[in-house]
Amino acid sequence: MPVIEWTEDLAVGVPSIDEAHHQFVDLLNMLPGASDADFPGLFAKLAAHSQEHFAEEEQMMERSSFPVIDIHKAEHARVLAELEQVQQQLEEGDIAAARIYITDQLSAWFVLHRNTMDYVTAAHIQRTSGSY
């Protein structure tokens, strides 16, 4: 059973953001069933994907003069710091904590972030710049 099931209800209406979110959900859903040997590599892919997506989204916010860009960027930075901390735990061999983070925290954060910050950001981008 997936941690998050991708549906069109998760789309925000900006194709590049929607595609990145779909990829994030796909990666997230691979992690709970991954073997202990495969988990660290998949987690690293998820972290790298997140970093790339956040950078692209922040560029869109800058180009569209999103008025609360600093708040959204701070949230991205906070999550990247969490991902880095979990990566450190994985390097120390604590796969169990990383698995809990994925299913209990990161999945809930994604849905909340999509429903709040990303929804508002996408609406602004569409209103001011069109889709990217």
Could you explain the architecture of this structure?
The structure is a single chain. This protein has one domain (18-128): Up-down Bundle (Four Helix Bundle (Hemerythrin (Met), subunit A)), CATH 1.20.120.50. The longest helix is centred in the last third of the chain and has 34 residues, at 95-128. The mean pLDDT is 95. The protein contains 4 helices and no strands. 74% of the residues lie in helices and 0% in strands. It has helices at 15-30, 39-63, 69-91, 95-128. By secondary structure, it is mostly helical.
The largest sheet, given as strand count, sense and whether it forms a barrel, is: none
Proportion in helices: over 70%
The strand count comes to 0
CATH class categorisation: Mainly Alpha
How many structural units, i.e. domains?
Answer: 1
| Residue share in β-strands | under 5%
Query: Roughly how many Å apart are the termini?
Result: 32 Å
Query: Can you give the mean pLDDT?
Result: 95
SSE string = HHHH
Global outline? globular
Number of DSSP helices?
A: 4
The third-level CATH topology is Four Helix Bundle (Hemerythrin (Met), subunit A)
CATH architecture: Up-down Bundle
Query: Could you give me the name of the CATH homologous superfamily?
Result: Hemerythrin-like
